[in-house]
Structure of Acyl-coenzyme A oxidase:
Amino acid sequence: MEDLEGGVDYLADERKKAQFDLNAMKILWAGNQHQFQIADRMARLVASDPEFKKDDRVRLERKELFKNTLRKANRAWKRIIELKLTEEEASQLRFFVDEPAYTDLHWGMFVPAIKGQGTEEQQRKWLPLAYRMQIIGCYAQTELGHGSNVQGLETTATFDPETDEFVIHSPTLTSSKWWPGGLGKISTHAVVYARLMTDGKEHGVHGFIVQLRSLEDHLPLPGITVGDIGMKFGNGAYNTMDNGVLRFDNVRIPRDQMLMRVLQVTKEGNVVKSDVPRQLIYGTMVYVRQTIVYDASRALSKAVCIATRYSAVRRQFGSQNGRETQVIDYKTQQSRLFPLLATAYAFRIVGDWLKWLYTDVTERLRANDFSTLPEAHACTAGLKSLTTSVTADAIEECRKLCGGHGYLCSSGLPELFAVYVPACTYEGDNVVLLLQVARILMKTVSQLGSGKPPVGTMEYMGRAEHLLQSHCSAQKAEDWLNPDVVLEAFEARSVRMSVACAKNLSQFSNPEEGFLELSADLVGASVAHCQLIVVSKFIEKLKQDIPGEGVKKQLQALCGIYALSIMGKHLGDFLSTGCIKPKHASLANDLLRSLFSKVRPNAIALVDAFNYTDHFLGSVLGRYDGNVYPKLYEEAWKDPFNESAVPEGFHEYVRPILKRQVRSSRL
Amino acid sequence: MEDLEGGVDYLADERKKAQFDLNAMKILWAGNQHQFQIADRMARLVASDPEFKKDDRVRLERKELFKNTLRKANRAWKRIIELKLTEEEASQLRFFVDEPAYTDLHWGMFVPAIKGQGTEEQQRKWLPLAYRMQIIGCYAQTELGHGSNVQGLETTATFDPETDEFVIHSPTLTSSKWWPGGLGKISTHAVVYARLMTDGKEHGVHGFIVQLRSLEDHLPLPGITVGDIGMKFGNGAYNTMDNGVLRFDNVRIPRDQMLMRVLQVTKEGNVVKSDVPRQLIYGTMVYVRQTIVYDASRALSKAVCIATRYSAVRRQFGSQNGRETQVIDYKTQQSRLFPLLATAYAFRIVGDWLKWLYTDVTERLRANDFSTLPEAHACTAGLKSLTTSVTADAIEECRKLCGGHGYLCSSGLPELFAVYVPACTYEGDNVVLLLQVARILMKTVSQLGSGKPPVGTMEYMGRAEHLLQSHCSAQKAEDWLNPDVVLEAFEARSVRMSVACAKNLSQFSNPEEGFLELSADLVGASVAHCQLIVVSKFIEKLKQDIPGEGVKKQLQALCGIYALSIMGKHLGDFLSTGCIKPKHASLANDLLRSLFSKVRPNAIALVDAFNYTDHFLGSVLGRYDGNVYPKLYEEAWKDPFNESAVPEGFHEYVRPILKRQVRSSRL
Ligand SMILES: Cc1cc2nc3c(=O)[nH]c(=O)nc-3n(C[C@H](O)[C@H](O)[C@H](O)COP(=O)(O)OP(=O)(O)OC[C@H]3O[C@@H](n4cnc5c(N)ncnc54)[C@H](O)[C@@H]3O)c2cc1C
Ligand SMILES: Cc1cc2nc3c(=O)[nH]c(=O)nc-3n(C[C@H](O)[C@H](O)[C@H](O)COP(=O)(O)OP(=O)(O)OC[C@H]3O[C@@H](n4cnc5c(N)ncnc54)[C@H](O)[C@@H]3O)c2cc1C
Ligand SMILES: [Ca+2]
């Protein structure tokens, strides 16, 4: 987005080098013309509103920071209402405000939980309240003692037929709810996950709508202890969120506040399964994780945009026509940066595809077709894990690519990192998710030849026989431009790793023990499978018509960079399974270098295509106009720490040292 | 260190499992009995002094945080004087205070710069002032526009023979000094690096002692603009340091404040080289980088200690005798954690060796023997790069290993990460350093067979002919326990990668162009070389007598884990160069798993051996007694944010939403 404020564009020369239609690429990145326009309008709306200023965030102490977030959430809500924004527009507006807030959990978890797990009656009652924000909700699942193992949660919900109520209770210290966002200070309600008990029997963990705070004075209701769990990683960052702790001392709620779409408790205390299958809740997980994958491409592209622009501004050593070399021209810089640029595009494409997958799954669910659900579930779990892990590492790599200046908060990268990393943990620890994927992979392998052909992203496993013996056909570097060659190498690698794991597993008499013992290898097989999904979706995209001069060509280069840089990084997999030979790897490496050169003149335009405002980037190094140094310098002087030349504490603690008022006889 | 406060030891069962002499291991870790005692005493001294409390650090706003650091530095100085501590003790005390402060740069950079680059006369004048802290100094090299490329610095020091002075000047915005620690608010003096100009001619970049602030009122002297560059990554963390910005407007200093050990300017303005060779400054770099490598093992071991203890406390899923499985028993957890534990020991051993190397280099320098200097310089540069990169990533991995709770500041890991990562950038950007190593590797390869056999850590290159054709002899998993098998694989990999690079380079008519084009591969060769150094130093250590029952056995297991996990991670290198075959890799992988099982019962004792106090760890998750949950819970309630149930801003910004005082006709 052109933020020139009437000034000079120090990156103008770079922009002139681009060999593709920038507008067409912007639309491709946004999804379509309609989505582009919404995003563009919302981003400008936020950027031009001084109330959404965010550069002071890293300096604010917690209470002030939090208050500031409440102010922004209020402002956003007002604008949404005043401008009569659609749901799509509102969600984009909140995204560009770029500050974690209680509203994220309200809209992102509380509402979907009721939609997914509430009966129609419950939805009719609660959703309008939530939509109008007459109540504010959060998602209270995790406890001090249990996160990954949801079945191990200790909070109890005991049915009392006498009063037709559930008694929600925290029986141990470790059963304290711990982490839910929005819980600490703001939510009036929560979906609380608890162990359902009727008549002394347990019936697993279920969701309950529980009011936490008075709608009058906002104080915790009787029996409820609630607070904030304290500071989290980073300055500013996720500390704008009130992740909370919550304990129940025999809190009573009406029976109809158990979310009863799949399981009902009658007023007699009987537990009845509804005809809605339990897998239905997978639908919500697919939804939530699909948004996480999409967000990965957003966070990653933001970091890449900053590092790419700064790498074109920064000059160090060497000389080109008398000036020093732009660091983006160093092959080491390219070999670290361009794969991340390619990954941003790859994740965006797979994110778009997952949106489609979710729609497809939803339609099938409506038609009572559950056949694709397990595969869709595994696929989103795996992609959530892959994309968030890669993005977290990539943000930090982008920060390092900026040298010393990347360590300043004004670079925007420290806060981006700190705010992003928990995505590797929430909604499923990334390793635990990969182990789930591995289970499905092993099941798929064991069913090969059983007449039940694998579906969806597992389909290629049906060609295992061929893939176990295929040979790489690359003879010269350019052969790696052929998508079939790339795809076959990735498919072969994945199948062979899975089959090898299955073979090793079969040596164990106790399969569960085997699974535990070989779990590190199984995780490797899952990663290979997930990387293949991304590569194949990228390649599929390239088979479509892509409007705009030169756009497809750029994407082809990026697809090559994405695939071949993964191959380089995981070369051990490809070689040890014999999918490729060292000479093929060396050809791929040669091609990769030449693809870097191809992308180089387009690099700035490729990040301009993300259409991010300077406000959204929040980075002096990533400024659209490249005018980095004067702004870095100005930024420093704005810091309140520079208000006085002699800092607080100097006279008390440093002067006595200098004046030798602290001394011993020895010195 | 036993911090039980009279309470229960929840990790007692784990401690009973240990199969080695803990005290002997503690001494090995510390270096020797003497060093152990000093470290132990200083750590306890700090831990028991409430003035050194640090758990509020993440919550303090910058000015308060900084004041607090000044207070601690003052306290430390007082204790050092009162207790008449030796230099060694003082440095340990400062280390355990564990808070970056202006004193780090004073002792760590200012004093060594004068020692290394000052004449004897200059040393006699300035060192006593610095030792007594009558002046406080920093190291002002980096500028806004130049960090890595020191020869590109723009600050000028122009000799004026009329007054016998140098005029220090900042001719451009980008020539502003930017980053020096201690500069922003505290230093009275700096060693300033500037371009020496006499009689209109340039003579390269040299160091000058410049007074910045009045010793009376601490205000900047005329012509000097100085301030802080603003917030850096993380809460607390490195924000205790006043990294600064500095500009000179024709500031005059006497001629004798140029550091003249290698180059002198006479009062006539003649520039005279002394007989001390320029390489001498390498000595200082070897010294500084050796301390960085040692510090890497400290930071890494701290993170590993936290993650290991918490992994033994944390239970999730499965069941062992009715209780859930400790997450440390999952092979995925082990395969992520134990290589880092092994790496901590590996870096400690190589750090100890580097201390020896520095002594050796210093002695040779005294005897005018410069023969080992280039190799020592390359080796410390490479090891600085390797150990800091690995440590930064490892801290973040340890944080992830703690699941959600690792994201809380009270885990200690976020601050440790944020404070540690700049080590990848300062004292040489890690990629730039690896490129320097690559130059020496290429030179060494080109001189093979020239009758000039490679020395020191390059010695194995002399056996290139053999190593280019050697075959791995491992037949069964246990063969990988044989250090010769491991060493040969690592040596072969390194030689083959270097030789392959050299061969590819020779295809270029312009070698400099070739070096740029192939630089990513060259970096790979440098990493291989540096990893080999660590592996070989670990193996050398194991050839020595090691006191204490079972100690050597543990170290052997750790050495195996270190080497084989690197092999697994960089398998592509080993396979593509044909050093090992896929079957060898598979055997190594099997052995690795069994080594994890071997280490498992010793894991807690192996981190106890670091002898860290709970104060130093600063982590609720890493507590010695394992009493994690109650303390996490207490910690949350201590946060001032929990002082009131209804947060500031609620009435103004949230209540109107809930009460629908903000609304539109549409909803
Ligand atoms: C910023 C943030 C926001 C959050 N928001 C919410 C929220 O709004 N609502 C909510 O309910 N929760 C929330 N959470 C909690 C989050 O969902 C959990 O932290 C997450 O599910 C991980 O669980 P855990 O913390 O128990 O990790 P653990 O399971 O304790 O993980 C610790 C280690 O054990 C390993 N491990 C665990 N099980 C296995 C296994 N079976 N096999 C191998 N290894 C294993 C993991 O890989 C990890 O390395 C949030 C967390 C964070 C950090
Ligand atoms: C916390 C902190 C404390 C510091 N303390 C001090 C201090 O006390 N005194 C002081 O003088 N300085 C200090 N510094 C500055 C520090 O020394 C520099 O930041 C460091 O030398 C890196 O230089 P740079 O920032 O110019 O990085 P750059 O060189 O600009 O690096 C940017 C990118 O370009 C790449 N690059 C650069 N040159 C090449 C090349 N030739 N080939 C390939 N790639 C290249 C790098 O790999 C990197 O990815 C400090 C920095 C930090 C972050
Ligand atoms: Ca304050």
DSSP finds 23 helices and eleven strands in chain B. The pocket of flavin-adenine dinucleotide (ligand 1) is lined by residues A 105, 139-142, 147-148, 179-181, 238, 243, 422, 425-426, 429, 431-432, 435; B 314, 316-317, 327, 330, 332-333, 401, 403-405, 407 (CB under 6 Å). Chain B touches chain A through 148 residues (CB under 8 Å).
